[in-house]
Amino acid sequence: MESSSPATVSAGHGPGPAPADLLRRLRARGAGDPVTHVERVPARAGVPAPWPSWAPAELRAAFTRRGVVAPWQHQAQAATLAYDGDHVVVATGTASGKSLAYQLPALATVLADPRATVLYLAPTKALAADQLRAVAALELEGVRPACYDGDTPRAEREWIRRHSRFVLTNPDMLHHGILPGHAQWSGFLRRLAYVVIDECHTYRGVFGSHVAHVLRRLRRQCARFGATPVFVLASATSGDPATAAGRLTGLPVTAVTEDASPRGGVTFALWEPPLLPPESGSAPPDSSSVPGQAAGDRSSAPAPGQAAGDHDDLRQVRRSALRETADLLADTVAEGVRTLAFVRSRKGAEVVAANARRSLDDAVPGLGDRVAAYRGGYLREERRELERALLHGDLLGLASTNALELGVDLVGLDAVLICGYPGTRASLWQQAGRAGRSGQEALAVLVARDDPLDTYLVHHPEAIFGAPVEATVLDPANRYVLAPQLACAAVEAPLTPADLVLFGDGAKEAVDELVAAGALRQRPTGWYWRHRERPEVDLRGEGGAPVCVVESATGRLLGTVDGGSSHFLLHPGAVYLHQGVSYVVDELDLADGCALVHVEEPDWSTHARDVTDLSVVSVRSYVDAGPVGMFLGEVDVTSQVVSYQRRRIATGEVIDTRPLDLPARELRTVAVWFTLSPQSLALAGVQSADVPGALHAAEHAAIGLLPLMATCDRWDIGGLSTAVHADTEAPTVFVYDGHPGGAGFAERAYGTASAWLRATRDAIAECGCETGCPSCVQSPKCGNGNNPLSKPDAIRVLDVVLANLPE
Ligand SMILES: [Zn+2]
Ligand SMILES: [Zn+2]
């Protein structure tokens, strides 16, 4: 392919090559064919519906003035359900117009009843501000929409409480401000007709469990004032949105999922980078693990700025997704195609842009100038300049982190490259949705990283293009959430037996605990909060107090690492990356919660090793499947970081292993686990010496695949496998929630066990490597240095489980 000179490259406004032709040329460049699947997502004409008869003429006219001629069918359907008093969740694609579905019934009611009010909740202030603009633009008499959040000036707050009938806020403000001040809000709450919960899929895990109880507290206050508002929720597409919305609100919710909005056509290719020839991979790092010791895998988030996806320590088996994306970006730019490449980490985005520039400059000096990197950290003016350049075609290629997803409006590109599955289908479609100008087909390419979930997805297109299975999970029964939330509720009004029903499973036990701890006192009229000050409860807080990272020479605070990860990332001697700069830790002061570091870029990386112990506290539910058992229950996890390895960055060679003296830490949480009889393993051909490696490999892949079933990150989950466990007396694999009290992930895994383990088995079996690689059974967070691992035996283990487990 000849590259045009910079002066003559299409400015991006002319018709580019048809996506199918472009894709054909891209896949013809290398030796093998990296494309595992091509899906043509056809353009869809929207299905409009008439305005519902109950919508007042004034409101229809206001929407028509804003360019909404008629609602789409799903909007009308959801709006009518809500208007009729049903709690409803509308779970349709990005840009399908979910706001109209709640604005219509809420505003119709506000117009019809001069007293009715609406409370709108968004996960971010920016989204609430967007919605405020949209509602205000309708210029409806007497609605007086207003944002009420931490930024609202004191002087305006009282006016809003008294006069606004459409208040936009966030769950944190509801928790910290509105509910504690319910007396001042009584007029508003008494007349509350609708509660709108936008982007409700973001309320997941521990945060989601907190929000669920904040909503129950809201319902309780409304009920005290005689109001029973209708809840309208908007969600990204997901598996079983009605159940998730029901758990969040504690109410029966009807789901509307049939998307009737129009969309442009996209040719969507799934791309798996080729395996490298064996001689080009470096030898795997040698690791010394104690035989028979349980293999623990930590469950804490990577530090900010540390790219969880770039496994520099693992043996390179496939060509990296970053390199592959950089080549694709260079190729599309050389074709004059305006392309956006999404990369998960900042560093990754810069690597992609730099490599693409280099290859373009090699072909035509100067052509590289038409590619840039874009990330959240840039100044506003710099970002606007990049956007302008891309829209005008001065710039043809941009590599970006998800920063672009949030708040910047760049659409109408010819091609979108997605480097690594972004974690959820919602994000995937949001990114792919950047492609496509009106009336033109566009190209989207998902480039798989060496990760079990990515590998699975590029070989199972139905998981991307078929019905969604990934569900938003939360666990309102988590006692670490329930008890503090009940304390907050008790401050707002004494708790009654009826409240125990409202707050659900575990509420009675939590109240008893609070009484025993002296926080509540039981009187004939209910349970009363005993202290003068309110309990301090942070909806987003978890994992212990964060540890501050401080540069000793300057005293500068570089950032914080959550308490759970600090032993792994900030032990003395650890190499700590922060925004691309390398530091070495001198001291970790656990009492003060701070780590002292200095700038240094050694040519090794550090890898903490831990010893994990797990004991079963109780079994909540189990399936007895002959030689196989599947369990859900509470466990205590004890882990201690005991040493770290230093490895050469260039070769992965282990330099040495150094001991550490850090205290053990405990976590009571929820786990799913399965056991197999030793006989069944022997029958399946797993030698007893290979059992630890088989279970360990199955555990890694199972953790990697859980995000397929539940919206979580593999860093939210931990695991442990052992050839014999004291509590189960059998070969066992445990997968647990990495949050105190559980977050709902293990529970979802248990509920979908056969589908989850089937996907795990397929991901391992379909990986083309011989002995295991990061795409299947190796884990970037293994506390045992990925040793022992047996790929073929992991498949045998999972076959035994699947053969016995009922569907
Ligand atoms: Zn593999
Ligand atoms: Zn491991």
The global form is globular
Portion of residues within helices = 25-40%
Q: Based on helices, strands and strand pairing, what is the structural class?
A: alpha/beta
Helical segment count: 25
Q: Residue-averaged pLDDT, rounded? A: 87
| Oligomer kind | single chain
Strand content range: 15-25%
Number of strands: 28
Tell me about the biggest sheet?
A: 7 strands, mixed
Q: Spans with pLDDT under 50 lasting ≥5 residues?
A: 1-13, 280-295, 298-314
Strand order of the largest sheet: 1-9-15-14-11-13-12
Query: Compounds present?
Result: zinc ion
> How widely separated are the two ends?
51 Å
- C-alpha Rg, in Å? 27 Å
Give a verbal description of the structure:
With 807 residues, this protein is α/β, with parallel strands linked by helices. 34% of the residues lie in helices and 23% in strands. The protein has 25 helices and 28 strands. The strands form five sheets. It has a seven-stranded mixed beta sheet, sandwiched between helices. A seven-stranded parallel beta sheet has the order 4-5-3-6-7-2-8, with helices on both faces. α22 packs across α25 (791-804). The two termini are 51 Å apart. It binds zinc ion (2 copies). Residues 295, 297, 696, 700, 779, 782, 784 line the site of one zinc ion (ZN). One zinc ion (ZN) binds next to β10 and α22.
Mind sketching the topology for me?
Elements: H1 19-27, E1 35-41, H2 57-65, H3 73-83, E2 88-91, H4 98-112, E3 117-121, H5 125-136, E4 145-147, H6 154-163, E5 166-169, H7 171-178, H8 186-190, E6 192-197, H9 205-224, E7 230-235, H10 241-249, E8 254-256, E9 266-271, E10 295-297, H11 321-334, E11 339-343, H12 346-363, E12 371-374, H13 380-392, E13 397-400, E14 415-419, H14 425-432, E15 442-447, H15 452-459, H16 462-465, H17 479-492, H18 497-503, H19 507-516, E16 520-523, E17 526-529, E18 547-551, E19 556-561, H20 563-569, E20 575-578, E21 581-589, E22 594-599, E23 604-625, E24 628-648, E25 654-659, E26 665-676, H21 678-683, H22 691-709, E27 717-722, E28 732-737, H23 745-751, H24 753-766, H25 791-804
Parallel strand pairs: 2-7, 2-8, 3-5, 3-6, 4-5, 6-7, 9-15, 11-13, 11-14, 12-13, 14-15, 18-22
Antiparallel strand pairs: 1-9, 10-27, 16-17, 18-19, 20-21, 21-22, 23-24, 24-25, 24-26, 26-28, 27-28
The chain binds zinc ion (2 copies).
